[in-house]
Structure formats: C-alpha cells, structure tokens
C-alpha cells in the first residue's frame, strides 16, 4: 500500500457523498463514474486498485457500487475509511427513496407523478446500457477476435449467463457460483482439489437462506431482504427482477 496517497479521507468522503446524491443509472453506471473520476481524471486510485476492488465487489452479493466504494475507502484509510464511505454513499439515496416513497404513496394516483417516474426510468436505461458495455470491457476484455480467443472461457460464461437469465427471467445464483469455482479450478486449482472430502457445511448454509419462513408479514419481509442482500449476486440490475418475483408474485 502506498502511504503517499493523493487525497484525504475528507475529500474521498465528500466525493462519494456527492456521487450518492446525484449519481443516476444504478450500480453499473456508478462504478463507471468512479473509474472515470477517480482513476482517469483525478488519479486518486490506481487501475490495479480499482480492478481489485471491482473484482471483490462482483464476487460478493449485494450492492456493487457501494461495495466498491467501501473497498476504495479501505485501501488507504482502513476501517474508518470504509465506514465513512459506506455511510456517505448510502445515506443520500436512503433519504431520497424514503421521501419519494412517501410522495408516491400519497400522490401516486396522479398522472403527472407517474409520468415523472416513467420519464426518469427511460433515461436511466440509456445510461445503464452504456455503462454495461464499459463494464463488460473492463471485466472481460475488448470486443475483438483476439480477446475472445484468449479469454474464451470468460466470454462463454458471459454468453451463458445472458441466455439463461433471458430464458428463465430469474437470477440463477448457482450459475454464478459454478462459473467462479470452475474458473478457479482451471486457472488456479487448490491443493485440496484432488481430495475426496466434501465440505457440506457451505451447501447447507447456502440452502438455509431459501427456507420458507412462516411468521407475520413484517418479519417475512425482513427475512426476504436479508436473504436478498446475502445471496443475490449481480447488484441492482439483478436484484430488481428477484424482488419482483418474491415480493409481487410469490408473496403477493
């Protein structure tokens, strides 16, 4: 870790407070903003630090952009930096969504309120499309024949995920886990790979998150979102259809 970093904790916190306040487009767009602002323009974060943070954020379930910000706060300022960045990034959107929820609950029947939300949604889709393209290039490689030959397995995982998600209209958690484990085994096989011992604890822990739970409506909602935050990979773009399936279709 380079101690001669080019920014203070206050500067980084204010940046993520601003990003959390006016950054539109969801997690994919936000991680693109972070790269453009902190890596390309301000040069606060190195390309390697950004790539490591993005890889870790993609590996873990939950909000991609928030996790990336927390990691970048941790790079030079450890636990304090991670905590401040996390709160600064999440707090503005929490307050705004709370207020918007109250407004929509009270006035959602008005046509002009609905029109505002639909207009914002259409604009955000364009931002997400461009950011998704850029994120694909950073995560997998350039869209050319040479890249596809050298990283054919990553492109295969990418195409399979697109096709399966499109057909099933659901996020397949086991697909992400299988892709990660398979690539690990091929590129960096662990020493225990040849062992016949099977660690069943991880499987039991994974399945435990999908047990049905009968209780009051409030408790069921709380448990559902705990499950979503713990086991849903792919951040906001993946969690939206997951929430629709669970909150609207399954639990009404």
At a glance:
The chain has 252 residues and is an all-alpha fold. It is built from eleven helices and no strands.
Structural description of this entry:
- The protein is mostly helical.
- It is 77% helix and 0% strand.
- It is built from eleven helices and no strands.
- The protein has helices at 9-22, 26-41, 47-59, 64-107, 111-139, 145-150, 152-168, 173-187, 200-208, 217-231, 235-250.
- α1 (9-22) packs across α4 and α2 (26-41) crosses α5.
- The model is unreliable at 195-213 (pLDDT under 50).
Topology:
Layout: H1 9-22, H2 26-41, H3 47-59, H4 64-107, H5 111-139, H6 145-150, H7 152-168, H8 173-187, H9 200-208, H10 217-231, H11 235-250
Family: Belongs to the chromate ion transporter (CHR) (TC 2.A.51) family.
Protein name: Chromate efflux transporter
Transmembrane segments: 12-34, 54-72, 79-104, 110-131, 152-167, 197-215, 221-243
Shape category: globular
What's the tally of helices? Answer: 11
Q: Give the tally of β-strands.
A: 0
Biggest β-sheet description: none
Q: Low-confidence segments, ≥5 residues, pLDDT <50?
A: 195-213
Query: Structural class given helices, strands, pairing?
Result: mainly alpha
Q: Tell me the β content.
A: under 5%
Cα(first) to Cα(last) distance is 50 Å
The ordered string of helix (H) and strand (E) elements is: HHHHHHHHHHH
The radius of gyration computed from the alpha-carbon positions, rounded to a whole number of angstroms, is 20 Å
Mean pLDDT: 77
Q: How much helicity do the residues have?
A: over 70%
């Amino acid at each position: 870790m380079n101690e001669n970093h080019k920014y203070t904790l206050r500067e980084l916190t204010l940046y993520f407070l601003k990003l959390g306040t006016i950054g539109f487009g969801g997690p994919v767009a936000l991680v693109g903003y972070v790269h453009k602002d902190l890596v390309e323009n301000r040069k606060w974060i190195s390309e390697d630090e950004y790539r490591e943070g993005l890889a870790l954020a993609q590996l873990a379930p939950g909000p991609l952009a928030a996790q990336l910000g927390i990691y970048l706060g941790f790079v030079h300022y450890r636990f304090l930096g991670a905590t401040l960045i996390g709160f600064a990034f999440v707090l503005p959107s929490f307050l705004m969504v709370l207020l918007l929820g109250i407004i929509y609950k009270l006035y959602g029947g008005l046509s002009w309120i609905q029109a505002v939300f639909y207009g914002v949604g259409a604009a955000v889709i364009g931002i997400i499309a461009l950011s998704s393209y850029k994120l694909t290039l950073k995560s997998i490689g350039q869209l050319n024949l040479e890249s596809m030959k050298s990283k054919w397995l990553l492109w295969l995982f990418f195409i399979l995920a697109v096709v399966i998600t499109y057909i099933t209209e659901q996020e397949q958690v086991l697909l992400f886990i299988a892709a990660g484990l398979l690539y690990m085994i091929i590129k960096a096989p662990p020493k225990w790979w040849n062992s016949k011992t099977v660690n069943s604890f991880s499987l039991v822990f994974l399945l435990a998150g999908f047990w049905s739970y009968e209780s009051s409506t409030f408790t069921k909602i709380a448990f559902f979102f705990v499950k979503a935050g713990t086991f849903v990979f792919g951040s906001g773009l993946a969690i939206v259809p997951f929430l629709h399936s669970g909150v609207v279709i399954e639990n009404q």
